[in-house]
Amino acid sequence: MSAFRLAGVMGWPVGHSRSPVLHGHWLARHGIAGAYVPLPVRPADLEQALRALPVLGFAGVNLTVPHKEAGARLVDHLDPAAARLGSINTVLVRPDGSLEGRSTDGYGFIRNLREGTGWQPGRGAVALLGAGGAARAIAAALIEAGETEVRIANRTDAKAAELAAPGSAIKPWPWAERGRALADCHLLINTTSLGMTGQPPLELDLAMLPGDAIVTDIVYVPLETSLLAEARRRGNPTLDGLGMLLHQAAPAFAGFFGTMPTVDAALRMAVLATFA
Q1: pTM of the entire predicted model
Q2: Are 16 and 97 in the same domain?
Q3: 199 shares its domain with 248
């Protein structure tokens, strides 16, 4: 690819994002002329920022908190997964200047879970904390993979209830009773920002969680959140959120730069080096 390609990540805040590092690693590895930059965009400015992408010569951007759901309402086209979820994490600029929204969060989560643990779907219920864009994508991907019950607890109970439907595998749980939702679960997932550096801690009693249940947190700053540390102390297998970040980025990179990259140990080490 001879033309210089430009992409980035929009969020508020966005300074914690390691996406520029991992995309930069792939650009160097594949000898691609391009750049991937952080773009701090306030929620009120998201539409203006997205519409500026074709004018500024961007091939596209990733969207992170809090833009995933709002972004889905602002783009011109949605892929089938994004249309079902009402959430996107990738925006591609089409040749005609229109914007296409895609969701790769579910793909990234499942790839990381399969490669990082002995997870097999259907062994019990799943407890999922949060009901934002990433939670929606993860819940859908889990059900598609074979999970039969996903218990969602969110700080705003009504938002968790919105994800459920009659006969659905998604079961809303009151946030105040989130500890009880862990009973008989074989997988616990935190998709909230609680526990992220600079955010309040996640308060969760793990007493009812089976000792062999996998615990994972999509937060990756810090790499080991208080949830993962507590789960590890009680002997639960744990999985940090960095792998999901790496895997969800691969199809986005292919959309921006025309090459499907590989997620490997060298990439993880390059990103981990930024945590020092």
Answers
A1: 0.90
A2: yes
A3: no
159 catalytic per annotation: no
pLDDT computed for residue 52 by the predictor: 98
CATH number at residue 203: 3.40.50.720
As a whole number of Å, the end-to-end CA separation of the chain is: 34
pLDDT in tens, 90-146: 999 999 999 999 999 999 999 999 999 989 999 999 999 999 888 989 999 999 999
User: In the predicted model, is pLDDT for residue 204 greater than 80?
Assistant: yes
Domain of residue 199, residue span: 119-236
Q: Are residues 56 and 160 in the same domain?
A: no
Secondary-structure breakdown of the chain: helix, strand, coil percentages, each rounded to the nearest 5: 40, 20, 40
Residues 204 and 264: their CA atoms lie apart, in Å, by 33
Q: Which residues of 81-95 are buried (b: 16+ CB within 10 A; e: fewer)?
A: bbeebebbbbbbbee
Among the listed residues 5, 23, 67, 68, the single catalytic one is 68
Q: Same domain for 265 and 195? A: no
